[in-house]
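pinned: reference chain
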Amino acid sequence: MLLIFNPDTDYALASGSPFFTPPARVIELRRSMALFPLTYALPGDYLLLLDAENIDFYSDNAGFSLNEVTAKGVTPVTLSDVADSLRSMPRPFILPWGWNPSLCRLLVEAGVDASLLPDSNQLSDLRRLSHRRLTISFNKAMQYCIPTLDFELPSEITSEEDAVRYWYSHSGCYFKSPWSSSGRGIMATADLEERHIRPWVRGMIRRQGSIMAEPGVKRSLDFASEWVCKSGHAHFVGLSVFVTSSRGKYKYNLTESQPRLHALISQACPTFGSSIIEAQRHTLNQLVAPSYTGPLGIDMLTSTDGQLRPCVELNLRLTMGMATLPSFRALL
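pinned: its structure tokens
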């Protein structure tokens, strides 16, 4: 299996262009965390270092040694030799952090067989499903499955004035860009004034066509269910719990056993249980799995009064929570 860490994938999907160039800070993140796939790598895997002209250059300039890669039985490769590496595999398979047109272009230009990559229709479906508007239909379906889930659905807004009206009527609401990751592209408005909100909303609508709006909630725990979609069906992998900043930006995941994580979630949200997972499975099978193959995570939260939000965000890619569950690879 060829592993690729490309945390710019959500930005590339937002762009929609095969010629997308990530911002410098995102390239630096990609470079500094290039070895992160070792978390879920197995002996015999290959690791593509996207920002390396050659292995020695990368090792000398990235602030770490590649010894830990080879010690785990993983072979580091660059774009110049990735095609040959794939041809040497008995069953070539590529597992990036996430697919997007820009990554596909890079791999094709490097000589990778296009049959190993998602085609244009699959990429179009991925971009459509990665838009945060999917949380509207997903939560609506969850409420249909479990009528006791009673909360206001997210809204998609396409004008600056409508966004301001929403803000006035929903104290402490959140505005979100349609495509973003790890809490970036989220505006927590609780301590903001209208003069702060208008430029952000105006710019985001201009760039991505709309924004998502959600009522504010006093969160007590952020967690997720991790899945793999294959052959039209969603397969549950496990649970993850993560920590965010007061403004909703991702900080880190807890590294605990599944029973311990389930206990933490149940303590914060007594209504969480197998019925939620089954409703998510049913909804994924209806809305996502027919058009998407690969890993995904459903971010959830519970409020300080124990109320569950069963789908704050869907990430159609690998997630930090999934990386703590290397058993997911058996489902790919």
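why pinned: The chain has a mean pLDDT of 93. Residues 2-117 form one domain.
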